[in-house]
Design brief:
This protein is of the alpha+beta class. It is built from two helices and two strands; from the N terminus they run H-E-E-H. The longest helix is centred in the first third of the chain and has 15 residues.
Amino acid sequence: IFFELLKNSMRAVVERHKDKPHLIEPVSVVIADGEEDVAIKISDKGGGIPLSGMERLWTYTFTTAGNTAEKLNQITAPGRPVMAGFAHGL
């Protein structure tokens, strides 16, 4: 799950700043270990989840990645590397 969250974060940042790549900021990961637990914080400048999506946030198929058919066309375009899936099923 950690890797999926990290990929989603990177995708969101790249998509938000696709017209201005010089504005892309790094994704920040902070790992803090306690005596009995570990906390992991992933922060990015990808724009976040709209308020309208908060109610469905923990729904299995919820995604902010956009139209699946559109994403499929983007990742199958010649010369385009696949960085992430469709952000379904975390």
